[in-house]
Amino acid sequence: MIGDRFDAIVVGAGMAGNAAALSMAKRGMKVLQLERGEYSGSKNTQNAILNPEVLEGLIPDFRADAPLERRLVEQRFWMLDERSHVGLRYRFHHCNGKRPDRYLILRTRFDRWFSAKVREAGATVLCQTSVTELAQNRTGRVIGVRTDRQRDIIQADVVVIAEGVNKSLATRAGFCACPKPHEVALVVKQVHSLPRRIIEARLNLKRDEGVMIETTGTISRGMSGMGFIYVNKDCISLGIACLVSDLQRAGERPYGILERFKRHSSVLRLIEGSEPNDYSAHLIPEGGYNGKPRLFGEGWVLVGDAVQLNNVVRHEDSSLAIASGRIAAEAIFRVKSSGDPITPDCLSVYETMLNQFVAHSKKPFPALLHTRPENFRLTHAQLIAKAMENFARLEGTSDAKQDGPTSASFLSSCGWSWSVRDAFRRRLLR
Ligand SMILES: Cc1cc2nc3c(=O)[nH]c(=O)nc-3n(C[C@H](O)[C@H](O)[C@H](O)COP(=O)(O)OP(=O)(O)OC[C@H]3O[C@@H](n4cnc5c(N)ncnc54)[C@H](O)[C@@H]3O)c2cc1C
């Protein structure tokens, strides 16, 4: 039974929640963190690319003991048709000196480690505890939370809502709307275990080198979506992400798309002989920061995926979630140490600081999956594959005869303007 009153309660022990709880506890605040999962990370079975800049600000020596799977030295882009892929490899040893700039992590392991740091900093962390409601007084001010552990309200001066993309508690309290089908992508993924030496031989990797593969093309059957393959120490995660609105419209079953992806010859050869040991589904925000909900109110702030602070192009969502948690914590600490009551006016410093962070970050935050998908993902993929097939397979005809039909069908199916605009848009997104 928790009878104490806290300076802050943090709902959720994902990237944003851990960053917020750690930052406040380090500053000597009395923090309670509540996580519904068996342990922090148990509900987050995905891989992620970690850009360490933001984490380094919180835990400077994180490289000493964080569970980092591999350092990223290569990204591959595959455009798939049904039988082949046209690929691009970008290998970048020069970026990865003594302090590598990107890592592959498995969230189950990473979040657990992150949570241990939160406990070390002095926060009380309770897992297997679902927050069932944000408790409000008669004026609507959030005064604490109700959980499935006890009937009484656990009280706090401020509640940091770090519940992830679904934002169910915030929606039920009327602070924001639940995400619309065109604002979220559904990710279904599987983890395949393989011995480390087989993974490294198949992907041409040495020691702790890591690679990720992103795929587009016919795999998403014309829907806004993409496939991905993350290579870890002793397992390969692969999956597909499609906009929920497109899945609804097309009546496609995500599991069916994943199965087709796994059976594609280019993918199959990577996971051949492996054991699938985990299957999961998760939403990711796709609305973009411009469509963000309210970020703060009477006694509450919203952080992480719930804010739609995503940048899927640069795989920075986790880092952005960490940044929003840290910035919210700093804002709350500022208000508390000024001795003023925590009013929405005071909490608005959080939004100001977050906007500054977004404005200073290197790239805009586009909603990638909203780019016109039909050409790039279906028609172009098939035609580019066909052009490469023609190029590779000489059958005694002249070059002009071979190239002619492919170029003509490419242009007639898309038109000059769409080809140029698509190419331009992709260029802008990078
Ligand atoms: C398949 C996949 C691949 C991804 N790849 C990348 C990548 O390569 N790079 C990258 O940077 N990002 C990636 N992301 C995105 C990244 O995972 C998210 O941006 C990040 O997890 C958001 O952090 P968060 O703390 O807001 O939410 P979450 O990490 O989702 O954490 C929310 C936590 O709150 C808990 N919770 C929810 N409701 C309650 C409640 N009522 N009571 C108690 N606890 C509750 C949940 O159990 C969960 O632990 C990927 C996401 C997916 C799904």
List the helices and strands and how they pair.
Blueprint: E1 5-11, H1 15-26, E2 31-34, E3 47-50, H2 52-58, E4 70-80, E5 85-91, E6 103-106, H3 107-120, E7 124-126, E8 131-136, E9 142-147, E10 154-161, H4 168-172, E11 184-193, H5 196-203, E12 209-217, E13 225-231, E14 235-243, H6 244-250, H7 254-263, H8 265-271, E15 275-285, E16 296-297, E17 300-302, H9 317-338, H10 344-360, H11 373-392, H12 399-429
Parallel strand pairs: 1-2, 1-10, 2-7, 4-12, 10-17
Antiparallel strand pairs: 3-6, 4-5, 4-6, 8-9, 9-10, 11-14, 11-15, 12-13, 13-14, 16-17
Helix pairs in contact: 1-3, 1-9, 2-9, 9-10, 11-12
Bound molecules: flavin-adenine dinucleotide.
Can you tell me about this structure?
The protein has 430 residues and is α/β, with parallel strands linked by helices. The chain has three domains: 5-51 and 102-177 and 293-360, FAD/NAD(P)-binding domain; 181-284, D-Amino Acid Oxidase, Chain A, domain 2 (2-Layer Sandwich); 368-429. Helix content is 37%, strand content 26%. The protein is built from twelve helices and 17 strands. The chain has helices spanning 15-26, 52-58, 107-120, 168-172, 196-203, 244-250, 254-263, 265-271, 317-338, 344-360, 373-392, 399-429; strands at residues 5-11, 31-34, 47-50, 70-80, 85-91, 103-106, 124-126, 131-136, 142-147, 154-161, 184-193, 209-217, 225-231, 235-243, 275-285, 296-297, 300-302. The strands form two sheets. Strands 3, 4, 5, 6, 11, 12, 13, 14 and 15 form a nine-stranded mixed beta sheet that branches. Strands 1, 2, 7, 8, 9, 10, 16 and 17 form an eight-stranded mixed beta sheet that branches. Strand 8 (131-136) and strand 9 form a beta hairpin. Helix 1 (15-26) runs parallel beside helix 9 and helix 11 runs antiparallel to helix 12 (399-429). The longest helix has 31 residues, at 399-429. It is globular and about 75 Å long. The termini are far apart. The model is unreliable at 364-371 and 423-430 (pLDDT under 50). The site of flavin-adenine dinucleotide has 36 residues, from helix 1, strand 3, strand 11, strand 15 and helix 9. Residues 11-17, 34-37, 43-44, 46-49, 130-131, 162-164, 169, 187, 189, 239, 282, 284, 304-305, 315-319, 321 line the site of flavin-adenine dinucleotide.
